[in-house]
Amino acid sequence: MAKRSVCFVGDELMLGLRDPEGFGWPQRLTRAERDHGHAIVNYVLGVEGDTTRDVARRWRAEAEVRLTGLPAAAVVFCFGVNDQAGDAGGVRVPLPESLYAAEAIVSEAASWRAAFWIGPPPVLASGLVQSGRQGQAMIYDPVRVRGLSQGFAAAAARCGVPYLDLCGALGERYARALAQGNGVVPAADGQAAIAAAVEAWKPWRDWLDHNTAPNLYFA
């Protein structure tokens, strides 16, 4: 099979921070696809604590360095959970700004390479969670995260990019892994659950197995 190069762009949920092997879901997904015979080169461009605003500033330059000139390449986005983290001053990124920035990111990516949008995974209702590179104490609200995912799904439909709603796709297995983690970043089995959901996702399977362009789902 032809070699595929994929940039995974997002936040700490890609990094396997609570996995003893340090394997996030992109690494697990890549390993599974290689076991199926696919030749994948993966670039994990996750930054701890990043919001949609942060991703907007950096994604294109980082992806261009890795994918320019490669005909069989894709960008997979998964971000947003940190946008809705809050403290007494409010959330880190207001919902309208998150939606506007995310749609701009993904629509630009889709005009350049195959693009896939993975929604933010659910979080547990909890108290303060240490978040980001500086370890700030923030509150993560599952209702806000689900609302953001719904807004992202509508934006994905507008820009013709397939969207995987992890808040709907992940069940009790992921909830248990969140409880074993910190309520936002799951233990290792949560990373495996995300990888399995993406691996089974029809737009992803069709691109890898049949070279079907993702935007054909919205033609």
From TrEMBL:
It comes from uncultured Alphaproteobacteria bacterium. This is SGNH hydrolase-type esterase domain-containing protein. One of its GO terms (molecular function) is hydrolase activity, acting on ester bonds. Residues 8-177 form the SGNH hydrolase-type esterase domain. InterPro entries: SGNH_hydro, SGNH_hydro_sf. Pfam families: Lipase_GDSL_2. It comes from the Bacteria.
